Amino acid sequence: MIDFRSDTVTKPTEHMLAAMFTAKVGDDVFGEDETVNALEEKSAELFGMEAALFCPSGTMTNQIAIKCFTQPLDEVITDQTAHVYRYEGGGIMFNSAASVRLLNGDRGRITAEMIEDEINPVGNVHHPHSSLVVLENTVNRGGGSCYTLEDIEPIYHLCKLKGMKLHLDGARIFNALAATGDKPKDYGKYFDGISVCLSKGLGAPVGSVLLGSKETIQYARRVRKVLGGGMRQAGFLAAAGIYALDHHVERLSKDHLNASLLADTLIDLPFVKSIMPVDTNIIIFELNDKKDASHLVEELKDKGILCGTFGKQMIRFVTHLDITESKVSQAIEILKKHH
Ligand SMILES: *Cc1c(COP(=O)(O)O)cnc(C)c1O
């Protein structure tokens, strides 16, 4: 099976497993796991942030960040496609008792102008207090579209001016960096919080880190405990994250190349109507009216290709560490023959 369903399906490599099995561990709730501490220091430093917190998932890092940056009755401004809104089970309401104002960005990318129009007037009791902006980079539902730091700078200035916080859902931030050439170190200047997934393109089995100021991360650690995310000998997992940061970042451009090769094939297929621009490792395409997405998924499954529906007539393919060049060639052959 060639599995394009998600970049979360990767299995740890032999070398990653070796790093995990030989990790030095301790009780992380006591702050005594040196491998977790090393991962937190390394990732904070990489992005020019003061501190970091290792968490079981990206949903948890995002939800903790939103809790840190809002008060009950506040409002979060984000794009309507945002993972924090669509795919975190309604957690913003549950965890933070905050409402959400949704914008209609360009493939999920919003601008300072769009945000400014939706900021509620301060001190008017009718309106929730606009306290946080959340950006996603890359944007999953935008077909892996990216912001550059140039796009982000005006949003940062607006948030500063309005006294709002800015959080980045950087589940696939390393894909964005590979595509734009921006440096992670420069990201720290712009954001109050950054979530980074280790278990997407980077190929670790578990884990995300939340980056922020020392003060933010101190409070975040408390929220993580409350959510049941305080882990003990988590260094076995953190070791996979360190290994991934050291060995699986530079190769991401291969995933992007593979995605564009697949897209070149897909666009010529009779049942494909249109395809979103492919900027990173995600391919989202629309089917002709006659073709139903869930049917196509079943048909391709019978031929050895796994992929996912992304709407009634939309399909998503994601390339990743376990999709080798030869699997891409195989998949291209299968797709070309499919009617
Ligand atoms: C995967 C993902 C997350 C985090 O998801 P978890 O499965 O909880 O790790 C957050 N944001 C985006 C855009 C994602 O794709």
From TrEMBL:
Its cofactor is pyridoxal 5'-phosphate. InterPro entries: ArAA_b-elim_lyase/Thr_aldolase, Low_specificity_L-TA-like, PyrdxlP-dep_Trfase, PyrdxlP-dep_Trfase_major, PyrdxlP-dep_Trfase_small. GO terms for cellular component: cytosol. Residues 3-287 form the Aromatic amino acid beta-eliminating lyase/threonine aldolase domain. It comes from the Bacteria. This is Aminotransferase class III-fold pyridoxal phosphate-dependent enzyme. Gene3D superfamilies: Aspartate Aminotransferase, domain 1, Type I PLP-dependent aspartate aminotransferase-like (Major domain). Belongs to the threonine aldolase family. It comes from Pedobacter cryophilus.
